[in-house]
Amino acid sequence: MKNMEIKKFIENEITFMELVEKAKEVYNPRKISPFIEAGGVSAAILTEDNNIYTGVCIDTSCSLGMCAERNAIANMITNGESKIKKLVCYCGANIIGSPCGACREYLMQLDKESGNIEILTNLKEMKTVRLKDLIPDWWGARFESRDQESNFVEI
Ligand SMILES: [Zn+2]
Fold first, then answer.
1. Structural domain that includes position 60
2. Which candidate, 44, 102, 118, 121, has a CA 20 to 30 Å from the CA of 136?
């Protein structure tokens, strides 16, 4: 079996249900301090290298917090990866959330192929959507023909 075939086989093994279970593992609403609550939303992402990273929301006074999705992304980047294939956002009670506008923007800026990230939107029906369908007419699309490094130099 060639490497590509092995990778595809492994990829097919990681399902949205597995990502939901990973998100559930870290879901844990709690008060951290008089100013901070965390864990009321959790996220799990599957990367191109077939690793799973999770994160929880951290809600603070004075808008210093971060969403579960961006926490999971920070975990992924810390571990040297940046390409996401699938994303699940878990809100408790078997409810699946959708990334907020800020997270959609953050995800789009991560990689040229981010528009293809598959996002679970309904657990009961196992309905999914592509990120590009959640953020139509994205402003950064005009830079897609350039390489990623030049975007930072020219803007
Ligand atoms: Zn968000």
1. 3-154
2. 44
